[in-house]
Amino acid sequence: MGGGRWRRVLSGVWRSIAVWAVSTATMLVLAGALPDFQLQSDNGDSATRVAVTAAVGAGVFGLLSSLVWPLLVRALLLVPALILGLLVFFLNGSLLLLALRVNPSGQSEAAPETAVVVAAVMSAVASATGGALAVRDDDAYRRRLYRLAARGRGRGRSDSDRGPSFPGVVFLQLDGVGHDVLEEATGKGLMPTVARWLATTHRVTPWRTDWSSQTGASQLGILHGSNHDIPAFRWYEKESHEVMVCNRPSSAAELQRRAIGHTGDGGLLTVDGASRGNLFSGGADELALVLSMAARRGRENRSRSGYFAYFSDPANAVRTAMSFVAEVFREIGQSTRARLRKRRPRVGRGGLYPFVRAFATVVERDVVVAAVIGDMLAGRNAVYADLVAYDEVAHHSGPRGRDTEKVLERLDRSLALIEKVAEHAPRPYRIVVLSDHGQSPGETFLTRYGLTLGNLVRAGCGLPVPRRARRTHSGAEARAAVRAALRRPVEESGERHSPPRRSEPVVLASGNLGLVSFPDVPHRMSREEIDRRHPALLSTLANHPGVGFLLVRSEEHGGLVIGAHGAEAPVDALDDEHPGPLADFGPGAADAVRRTHTFPHAADIMVNSWYDPEEGEVLAFEEQIGSHGGLGGAQGRPFLMSPLALSEPAGDGGDLVGAERVHRVLRGWLRECDGPQVPLPMARSERAA
């Protein structure tokens, strides 16, 4: 055995002894502080005997945590992920009780509830001590990070193994962070890591989304190269009489299947890739928190394996649980303060929302970041991960403000950690940061006008309108992720539509984009058919001050854009120089609307809300004060931040438009890294571009 190997062995032994000593001291302190936890008999023991009892108890507990804990977590593979997060405390406490029971040095005992607390504190202290000691040794730090991130994955890597010499790529999606928000955050010093990268190693490029400016359309296009026939976040399909919802596992799986069929390509991550926290897999074999795979059952379902890899270290569960509770109270405090100060605009933030927010900003972030760390230290070729924290908070708090600034600061710290881990990875990595859309501020349609889009449509059809408006769901991605983690159905109320009278319209909202469909007509209705059935409907919608424009099919003109006061124009006649009713919506609006008109599942009436180009505000048809889904403002202007070592994303000097174009850029960067690529050299969607 060489000198270097002996030094590593001795260093490991020394760290283990140090952790054991700190754990022993922690147990002694807790025994003195907690009345239901004792390390001596009722008659009292000598200080030496108590110390020996604590030392043996800490040693046995540490041994059980190292050997038994991973086996327990693996045995609980079928338990819903969030339940495991709670169960982890009771299992950890049980291991401590077992350690005390088999301890031959004294009559130590603890109440079950006290054992949970003691075990949690000892796990946290042992993890912190081991990490603090290991970080002083680069090799030990790398080995520790790999063990913590990859435990439970059934894979290992020898310390001497090195990965390929060519770089891998990590794509980190900051969900909902617009280009303007990123620039403001770096200017204010909220994101020092991003600011340093932009000053030294990276560039940032804005890009423009399709009309459907939401994660489903953008991420499907980015990961699979096609978002054809994705008209919105949710839409009604007449042939199946069902509503497709991008964040429903069954819908996500079907959309992924359609995209693969459309391109003839498995996706961006087909070769040695990992997909973490996404709606779609991208063709990756390594999956964690991927919604399109969440409908699978049994041990074959690896979409939640990231939870179990993460919670296999009890210290992770302790740290995340503490942060989760803190985030719940932080949200309650922030929402109470906003209500007392009567801030406007404002939406309800009660019920389960504080827990949904804590899941998005703490649990999902921790699990996804840990999975990415494991992927990098395992030397995978391409990793794509989605961090949804900002998007979830901005929906309810607005795109700008102290609430979202705090989230951006924590996201920046996650980027800094991933950058640090890259230094210890077995291969070099290029880190690309991007977003799928931005968010536009503004109060809700319901708040401003006292009725929902659905009720406005009913009024235009001459149907009775309920006196009390029913509030819509926010549709945030994190809510579906929570339900999938709990194995509860993701369908929202009314989304599996069975109208009592099939002649009544189905009205759906996707941010500030509304869709109106008539389920009793098997084809997409024309403007002429709508006018014959409901003569007042189109004029009622187009002339409402909260509506920007409509898109319908015309028997005479094809696609027809209708604005207020009788303004209308064939969509094929519109462009940036002659925008017609789309004048307020900026460059590219006509192209985006024209493309959506060609989709087989475009609604009978597509409704885009009013937009104020001076203030950048829209009116969401959902209960969101930061929204996205249609045209108007920052929601359609995300960013792509790439290393200078990679080619310019818009090499022709033009604008970067559409998620499918971003897919081609990312695919080109993978080729530039000279690694093995997706077997098909070029997908059909790329050849057609």
UniProtKB/TrEMBL annotation:
Q: Does the keyword Transmembrane helix apply?
A: yes
The molecule here is called Alkaline phosphatase family protein
Which keywords accompany this UniProt record? Answer: Membrane, Transmembrane, Transmembrane helix
Q: Which organism is it from?
A: Streptomyces fagopyri
Q: Please give the residue ranges the record annotates as the region Disordered.
A: 485-505
Q: Which residues form a coiled coil?
A: none
NAD as UniProt keyword: no
Instruction: Give me the stretches of Basic and acidic residues compositional bias.
Output: 488-504
Instruction: Tell me which positions the record assigns to the signal sequence.
Output: none
- One Pfam match, given by its short name, reads Phage_holin_4_2
Ranked from the top, the taxonomy reads:
Bacteria, Bacillati, Actinomycetota, Actinomycetes, Kitasatosporales
